Amino acid sequence: MKEFKIEYKDSLIKILNTIVLSGAKEVKLVIDENSILFRNILNLRILHKVTKHSGIILKLDTSSVRGLAMISQLWKDQKEDSFSKFQESEAEVSELIVSEKPKLEMNLNKFNFFKENTTLPLILGTLVVVIVGGYFLISSKLTANVDIKVGAERFVKSFEVKLSTTSNTDIEARVLRVNSSSRTFSAAKEIDTTGKTDAGSKAVGEIKIQNKTDKDITLKTGTKLTLDDDKTELVYVLTEEAKVPARALTSSSASSYTNGEVVANAEASNYGSTYNIAAGNDLVISGHSSSTLSAVVSSSFEGGIKKSSTSITTEDLKNVSSGSLDEFKSSYKSENSSDKVVLKNSEVFTISKETFSGKLSDPTDKLKVTQEIVVTTLSYDQNEALAFVKGSIKSLIPDGFELYGKDLQIEFSILGNSDKTVLNSQQADSQLTVRSYKIPVFDANKIKTDLAGKTFDEVEAYLTKLDNVINYNIELNYSIPFVKSLPKDTSRINVTISRD
Fold it and tell me: Coil, strand or helix: which one is 480?
């Protein structure tokens, strides 16, 4: 008995030539588990038929579970057809071996269909007929699986969209309905004042006023009195109303009068120690001549002090107000809900109320403002916006492609309020940027028709020309020598398209 080791790369023809040309009457084959003999049972049947016609007793041995099952099936088929006669002991051993998965040997008894002097050409002729018949049988059942993997391409597109709280979503008009909402917040800020002013205390004293007329005279609060001095002009004001009675005749003489008089409080009109004057200084009453009313300092003016101080200016009032608002804007953060997205930069800030700690020209080092700020924002519904984007983007995607929903991102950029754009609590002009992927749309049936009957080289050229194809694989259900094209029948071509 001659023993041959059959490698996975050995073809069927090589195996048959090895056996027939060996001249051995009994041959044992140790078969690799990946051998072509185990790709389909037809190969084993051809092997059996050729060795049987050549009068060769064949034994098969393998570690392949699939191979053992196919050898067992071949044995059963031959037994049922009475082509081989096995001893009962051999049959039992074969069945046991298959169930326990050790190595299996099968003896195919010698049948001499030819005479002892059968020539090699006749054997090879028979082999050719068998192989050709098997070739056409397998070819008629050949199917092809074509797997195509398509890659997505980055897609970025921007277009203008009008946002409105008063209109419904309109894809053709590029209008997206949004919602408006308002909230009130508190804010405060304090700054240093920048104005310069005189400050201190004003001199105060008493003035005696005499009436030289026959009628009572009343001087109102704030009436000015000026020091009767050529060197300096100091002004004082009454801090109370003064009712000066008319003069009265004396009892001693019919032509002698006593002036009516009253003492009133007054203060300097400005700060400074120069307003501190002694009693006895004469004052001129504004609007009256000294022949009618006269005034003299009856109690000296004292306490006048002058010093420089900061005060509130108009700019201070503006700056503290705008500064408080700006700080609030910079720290403000919008809050999204599960289904509502606030549009970035759509906020409208309005000061509804503000209170200052002082008024214009007040002498103070600090100025504080307290504000109530109303924030109005625009927001959109996430699902409605995505539907709007997908509907709008169809006209912008090239023919033969579709939007691939992987990592779809949308971003609205509010264009602000200007001569050409609008931003208020009801509507806003914006630019919508869509970032996603586009992917080719392939017709699997058309690809089948295009590939039917094509050679492998033609198939490769066809697939490489398709957009965004990053990989492809072609598999035949049988490995047949000399087959270099796909089936002509499209029903035996399966096309699978997958996306990366």
Answer: coil
What is the residue-wise DSSP string for 160-172?
EEEEESSS--BTT
DSSP code per residue over 101-115: -------B----SS-
List Cα–Cα distances, 444 to 450, 451, 465, 494, in angstroms.
10, 11, 15, 9
Q: Residue 447 pairs with which residues in a beta bridge? A: none
Sequence-ordered list of residues with C-beta below 8 angstroms from that of 229, at least 6 positions apart, any chain:
281
Cβ-based neighbours of 78, under 8 Å, separated by 6 or more: 48, 84, 108
Residues 27 and 1 sit within 8 Å (Cβ to Cβ): yes
**pLDDT tops 90 at residue 43:** no
Q: What percent of the chain has pLDDT over 90?
A: 42
For residues 487 and 493, the answer to whether their CB atoms sit within 8 Å is yes
DSSP code for 339: S
Written in H, E and C, the secondary structure of 370-400 is: EEEEEEEEEEEEHHHHHHHHHHHHHHHCCCC
Burial 372-406 (b: 16+ CB within 10 A, else e): ebebbbbbbbeeebeebbeebbeeebeeebebbee
CA separation for the pair 405, 435 (Å, rounded): 10
Residues 406 and 43: their CA atoms lie apart, in Å, by 48
Structure tokens at 196: 């310069």
User: What is the three-class DSSP state of 464?
Assistant: helix
Look at residues 79, 187, 225, 150 and name the one whose alpha carbon lies nearest to residue 400.
Answer: 150
**Domain locations in the chain as residue ranges:** 2-140, 144-151+442-499, 198-309
Structure tokens at 107: 């003896």
Strands 293-302 and 282-285: antiparallel
Instruction: Provide the whole-model pTM.
Output: 0.46
pLDDT bucket at 484, cuts 50 / 70 / 90: confident
CATH code of the domain occupying 198-309: 2.40.30
Give every CB contact of residue 162 below 8 A, 6+ residues apart in sequence: 173, 174, 175, 176, 427, 428, 429, 430
Q: Is 46 helix (H, G, I), strand (E, B) or coil?
A: helix
Q: What is the helix (H) or strand (E) element at residue 42, kind and residue range?
A: helix 41-53
